[in-house]
Amino acid sequence: MEIILFYAFAVLAIGSALLLVNLKNIARALFLFFIVLFAMAGLYLFALADFVAITQIMVYVGGVLILMLFAFMLSNKELLKDLQDSSGSFLSMPRWQAVVLAIGFLILMIFGITEWHQSIPTWIQQAKENNTEIIPTDNNIQQIGLRFMTFYVLPFEVISVFLMMALIGASHLSRKERNR
Amino acid sequence: MITLTHFLVVSACIFCIGLYTVLSKKNAIMILVGIELMINAAILNFVAFGKYDKVSYGGQIFALFAIVLAAAAVAVGLALVLNVYRHYKTINPDEIKELKDK
């Protein structure tokens, strides 16, 4: 049952990502991106990372995707052209160099994974032997909160300041210039 | 039983689709979408390995950091895309060739 669900999420993610690449209509591609993000959040759940999955849905779907839709609608000269173009043909013309590069990289990575599978790192072996993996009944969110406030407190503060700087910079960049 | 290899293969596929998007699209917003796909594949790997690290929860916490960094990158990137559109009236990266004001 578990593995069937995993395959369903994986097929959903990869299939809609492939469709996203081949669609010419950008609005539909962005909504397919939404489905990919949801399926990826489902996959995180299978690695027992419930807090990361919830954060993914809140940050990406609530923030990033809305931002992308806004940027897309504000630059919509291209949109109208694309909509008229894609009325006849469903798939856009793939650029063969990009296809070759992407498939070559995929083959390289699959080869790396199979090679790596012969010799699993010792810390994973140890965790399997001592039964210290994360199990479904653990209280993950409480543990993550504790680690954030003790062991990882410096990176946490640094990334908070960084996020604030990035948001101030973004709002400064997108402001209308008055004296021009 | 779902092993580590399942996660690795899925994230390799998603990463390559993101790479293809970045290389082949002619729209800056779609290129950003491709970069997001690649970041998501990396986060899936972090989370899958983090399952075996109960002491410090390194994988999950770094995944959270990566999500925050991706959100910041998208905010700044889209602001830049809008500015470029205002200047050049296009967001096709092939047609943006000059840095100076006309």
TrEMBL record, chain A:
Function comment: NDH-1 shuttles electrons from NADH, via FMN and iron-sulfur (Fe-S) centers, to quinones in the respiratory chain. Couples the redox reaction to proton translocation (for every two electrons transferred, four hydrogen ions are translocated across the cytoplasmic membrane), and thus conserves the redox energy in a proton gradient.
Family named by the database record: Belongs to the complex I subunit 6 family.
Reactions it catalyzes: a quinone + NADH + 5 H(+)(in) = a quinol + NAD(+) + 4 H(+)(out)
Topological type in the membrane: Multi-pass membrane protein
Subcellular location: Cell membrane
The protein's Enzyme Commission number: 7.1.1.-
Listed name of the protein: NADH-quinone oxidoreductase subunit J
Segments passing through the bilayer: 6-23, 30-47, 53-75, 96-114, 149-170
Keywords, alphabetical: Cell membrane, Membrane, NAD, Quinone, Transmembrane, Transmembrane helix
A Pfam family that the UniProt record links to this protein: Oxidored_q3
GO molecular function annotation: NADH dehydrogenase (ubiquinone) activity; quinone binding
Highest taxon in the source lineage: Bacteria
Residue ranges that the Swiss-Prot or TrEMBL entry lists as coiled coil: none
InterPro entries given in the database record: NADH_UbQ/plastoQ_OxRdtase_su6, Nuo/plastoQ_OxRdtase_6_NuoJ
GO cellular component: plasma membrane
Organism: Sphingobacterium puteale
N-terminal signal peptide: none
From TrEMBL, chain B:
Keywords for this protein: Cell membrane, Membrane, NAD, Oxidoreductase, Quinone, Translocase, Transmembrane, Transmembrane helix, Transport
Protein name: NADH-quinone oxidoreductase subunit K
Predominant localisation class: membrane
GO terms, biological process: ATP synthesis coupled electron transport
Keyword flag Cytoplasm: no
Subunit structure: NDH-1 is composed of 14 different subunits. Subunits NuoA, H, J, K, L, M, N constitute the membrane sector of the complex.
Taxonomy, superkingdom: Bacteria
Stated family: Belongs to the complex I subunit 4L family.
EC number: 7.1.1.-
Entries under Pfam families matching the protein: Oxidored_q2
Protein task: NDH-1 shuttles electrons from NADH, via FMN and iron-sulfur (Fe-S) centers, to quinones in the respiratory chain. The immediate electron acceptor for the enzyme in this species is believed to be a menaquinone. Couples the redox reaction to proton translocation (for every two electrons transferred, four hydrogen ions are translocated across the cytoplasmic membrane), and thus conserves the redox energy in a proton gradient. NDH-1 shuttles electrons from NADH, via FMN and iron-sulfur (Fe-S) centers, to quinones in the respiratory chain. The immediate electron acceptor for the enzyme in this species is believed to be ubiquinone. Couples the redox reaction to proton translocation (for every two electrons transferred, four hydrogen ions are translocated across the cytoplasmic membrane), and thus conserves the redox energy in a proton gradient.
Molecular function terms from GO: NADH dehydrogenase (quinone) (non-electrogenic) activity; quinone binding
Location in the cell: Cell membrane; Membrane
Catalyzed reactions per annotation: a quinone + NADH + 5 H(+)(in) = a quinol + NAD(+) + 4 H(+)(out)
Enzyme class: translocase
